[in-house]
Amino acid sequence: MHGYLKIKVSKDERVLKLEILKLNHISKIYGDKVQFCALKDINLSIEKGEFVGIMGPSGSGKTTLLNVISTIDPPTSGEVLINGENPYRLDNSKLALFRRRKLGFVFQDFNLIDTLTIGENIVLPLTLDGHKVSTMDKKLKEVAARLNIENIINKRTYEVSGGQAQRTAIARAIIHSPLLLLADEPTGNLDSKAAKDVMELFESINRDIGVTTVMVTHDPRSASYCHRVIFIKDGQFFNEIHRGDSRQKFYQQIIDVLSLLGGETNDVFPIRFK
């Protein structure tokens, strides 16, 4: 199967949308004798080209949800479909291949390999897949130019700033053109200027290349770049809001929902939007 075609019909046009991610009644329970329900009956649909944020208080289950989506942690019950395929039905070797070819990952702590150069880190997914050197060189030049890191590809990870390291991680995550880009607190270790630059980068990648993106974040500033934000509390769906024309208004809506959640707004200050 290669995904579902969801048809949205308006008065004047019929628009075909490809559903990249579908979660059906996802629950996750940890423990045997003493059980803890981390996720309860989560349903979610994400279409091709969307940029979706997931937010919630600490311990709400947002990282668990991302782990389920990323095929790292299987659900206790329910179904995960990525482009119409349930990856949890694959054997370990096929699942590893699926994860490497279909998904891209960006982490808070970058997860770069210190013994490799920046360029070698970026092409690692292609190296593991046995691509020709000429192909890797071509794709490296393209992605490095897009992310404005051409001048650091020969440097080591310890020679670059946090913002440059995260740009490197994003380049590695998209070099193989994944179906789904998954980001876990991608601005968590960055100062405000670097965080803004990285979120503008995510926004441009989503807009210009059409990479479907799911991001877990505690930061309302980062979340305001998304098309919509899903809030979970105590492992359950709580609310969902959609961005309109104004990112500033969307930011304020996010703050309002986090306040209802008892969310993490301690370090939130008014900011200007361009």
Notes on the structure:
Strand 9 and strand 10 form a beta hairpin. The strands form 2 sheets. This protein has a 6-stranded mixed sheet with strand order 6-7-8-4-9-10, sandwiched between helices. Strands 1, 2, 3 and 5 form a 4-stranded antiparallel sheet that branches. It has a single domain, classed as P-loop containing nucleotide triphosphate hydrolases (Rossmann fold), CATH 3.40.50. The longest helix is centred in the last third of the chain and has 18 residues, at 192-209. The protein is an alpha/beta fold. The protein has 9 helices and 10 strands. Helix 6 (162-174) runs parallel beside helix 7 (192-209). Residues 1-14 and 265-274 have low confidence and may be disordered.
Broad CATH class: Alpha Beta
DSSP, total strands:
10
- What is the percent of helical residues? 25-40%
Named at the architecture level, the CATH assignment is 3-Layer(aba) Sandwich
What is the averaged pLDDT score? 90
* Largest sheet report: 6 strands, mixed
Strand order of the largest sheet: 6-7-8-4-9-10
Please compute the radius of gyration using only Cα atoms. Answer: 19 Å
- Tell me the overall shape: globular
Specify the structural class.
alpha/beta
Task: Note the total helix count.
Answer: 9
